Amino acid sequence: MAREITGVSAPRWPSGVRLPTVLTFEHQSGEGTPSLPGDRPNYMVGGAIQYGARRGIWNILELLDQLGVKATFFVCGSTAEKYPEAVRAAHAAGHEIAGMSYSFERVRTAHPDRERAIVRQTVKALKDVCGATIKGWRCPDYRASPQTLDILSTEGFTWDSSLLNDDLPCLFDCAGGTLVELPFTTSTADKTFIGYPYPMRGGPDGLASAWNSEFDVLYREGERSTRFLTLSIQTWATGRPAQIRTLRQFIERLTRHNDVRFSRCGEIAAWCREAESNKG
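The chain above was modelled as a monomer; its predicted structure follows.
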């Protein structure tokens, strides 16, 4: 089983970077929709999530292009197959493509062979659709299994972002080598505030307050200690007009700081690996 080696206590960000900021977009088209009793389709929730694949991701890509920001997109393999143009557009624009299962399968209690098959199916789907060789992963609903990190490492992945247990990256000794874990938090996840149609817990204003407060604290602490900011964003939620206005305002605020850099997960992982190798 994967064993945590150490937290990356002193990752070295590039010169002049005080707070790397990672926008991670989770992209599905309704695969994660919970069914109604009797295994009946839930068209209300499913339709809300499908919006991300039909329209939300395009709104987000347009915004990121206008502001010159690169991000990481966690994509379900089946979503890429059903809506390939958007995933190709994200990859062509220089955004990082990572995996988030094939069809939003929950793997927490899955047999290792089943989980490995899901990973491989996702890798193939994303490669076939947009040409990306993915190196990063996030488990649906952030529910990793005991073997997730071992499987990812043996399948050629270099980083994961499924855990919620720290403010800084950490390293795991896995069956296939060392894996960088990039923890984050659901306290600033957009679906916490603007999730399914009912109830909305704070709405766009509540989301803006959480994002701005998180940035204020981490930016202040980043003057003396290593910090990084990661946001979990759903294309089906923040891709809608009112919410995307909140994202625009947040990005515009951060770009006024010359020592804040929008980065992709793979870049953070590479900087952490470099810092650890330099210790020796």
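The mean pLDDT is 93.
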